Amino acid sequence: MTVHRRVVIEADGGSRGNPGPAGYGAVVRGAGGEVLAERSESIGVATNNVAEYSGLIAGLEAAAELGATEVEVRMDSKLVVEQMSGRWQIKNPGLRPLAARAAALSRGFDAVRYGWIPRERNKHADALANAAMDVAAGKTPKTVRTVEVAEPEPEPREVAAPDSPARAQARQVAAQARETAAQARESGAQPGGARADAPTARSSWEPRPATAATRLLLVRHGETERTAQRRYSGRGDVPLSERGAAQAAATAARIAALAPSVAAVVTSPLARCTATAEAIAGALGGTPVLPERDLVECDFGEWEGCTFAEVRERWPAEMDAWLASTSVAPPGGEAFIEVGARVRRAVSGLLQTYRGQTVVVVSHVSPLKLMLRDALAANDAFLHRLYLDPAGLSIVDTWPDGGVAVRAVNDTAHLVEG
Q1: DSSP code string of 105-141
Q2: How crowded is residue 20: how many other Cβ atoms within 10 Å of its Cβ?
Q3: Under CATH, what is the fold of the domain 210-411?
Q4: With contact defined as beta carbons under 8 Å apart, do 9 and 112 qualify?
Q5: N or C terminus of the chain: which is more exposed, having fewer CB within 10 Å?
Q6: What residues contact 61, with CB distance under 8 A and at least 6 apart?
Q7: What tens digit of pLDDT does each residue of 95-143 get?
Q8: How far apart are CA 412 and CA 389, in angstroms?
Q9: What is the Cα–Cα distance from 130 to 403, expressed in whole angstroms?
Q10: pTM of this prediction?
Q11: 105-114, 174-183, 282-291: least confident range
Q12: CA distance 143 to 65
């Protein structure tokens, strides 16, 4: 069986009556837009939202069966997209088991991102869902033949001569930036990392009681050989160096003295982070270590393992575009706007699960910078001005009304250079 690493899921669902005869449809597409799988089923009497979540679950299951590791979900249900992105609470108790099932499936992939699309761009899944609703209402046989609804082909454009490889790469980067920016606008993201629906607290100089806040102790993993060599280190699973292990031990001792009561140590699943997390958990007397895929480092694609100087020499145009916009990804990699979406999802989950408690979060440079950017309500320029040392510690308090206090950034007082 051919394994498709990156896929797109288009899902929809609906009911005739809300609640009424309901059904869902889901389509899984490959990188070239080809249909890899279809799912469609009537689910009896249900609400629109139940049907939409059912379509999402079916799409995620189909993507898993295809061996996908990275998934982009496109739906015209704003509610499902926002709830699965962690930006809206799930208030309807009937939807929580479905959302939990979708979240469990999502954790089986390296990355899952959600984007809203208008209904006219979700015609294939909509057609499948409507056919399933017809079945539920007794209007059609159980076997339903579906027809692919093709998108109109773009008008051909004449060029003076075939693009050179460099120009073709530049066109690809520009197209990717436009597409990602459009997806960000549709999903509610604002320039500079702010979100249209982000909770806001009344501004005040008055100190807040720390005991009511959820405290996140943000720790960058200890040093690796790639860190010392100034190489891009994304999804490559490199271990801590000897110095990095010593840094992890020093950080563990610092946290044990600073916060003896910690609910959990949540970590990126990569070895350099889990080793750092286990050192911290050991110093805390066996606090559980919980892996979280959304905390993994940015995928640097073709830049993985290269030095910064090598990337500047080999990909100058792509690097300039990447530095200029969080919507641009390294060749074959992941844009910061995509990393930010999954990081927010992880933080939202932590704030809901560990309300009023202290949690250690062990991750990488990019996710931690994005967390601090959002906590400080900064713009994207912050990402290139902040430096985070290996095993550096930052502290962020968040209150239930959305109030945030950044207590420390990149504290390295516990690290003694030998």
Answers
A1: HHTTSSEEEEEE--GGG-HHHHHHHHHHHHHHTTSS-
A2: 17
A3: Rossmann fold (3.40.50)
A4: no
A5: C
A6: 39, 105
A7: 888 988 898 899 889 899 999 999 889 999 999 999 999 888 887 544 4
A8: 8
A9: 43
A10: 0.56
A11: 174-183
A12: 22
pLDDT tens profile 312-337: 999 999 999 998 888 889 999 999 99
Name the percent of the chain lying above pLDDT 70: 82
Residue carrying structure tokens 């889990």: 274
Instruction: Give the pLDDT of residue 417.
Output: 65
How far apart (Å, rounded) are the C-alpha atoms in residues 73 and 148?
Answer: 18
* CA 332/CA 83 separation, integer angstroms: 28
**Residues belonging to the active site:** 221, 297
> What pairing do the DSSP bridges indicate for beta strands 214-220 and 393-398?
antiparallel
Shortest CA distance to 57 belongs to which of 8, 121, 106? 106
Separation between Cα atoms, residue 319 and residue 336, nearest integer Å: 13
How far apart, in whole angstroms, are the C-alpha atoms of residue 333 and residue 335? 7
Residues in binding site for substrate: 272
Check if CATH label 3.30.420.10 holds for domain 6-151: yes
Mean pLDDT of 283-304: 94
Strand order in the sheet with 35-46: 35-46, 20-29, 6-15, 70-75, 111-116
359, 215 in Cβ contact below 8 A?
yes
Backbone angles phi, psi at 408, to 5 degrees: -155, 150
DSSP lists the bridge partners of residue 195 as 189
Phi/psi at 280 (5° precision): -65, -45
What are the boundaries of each domain within the chain?
6-151, 210-411
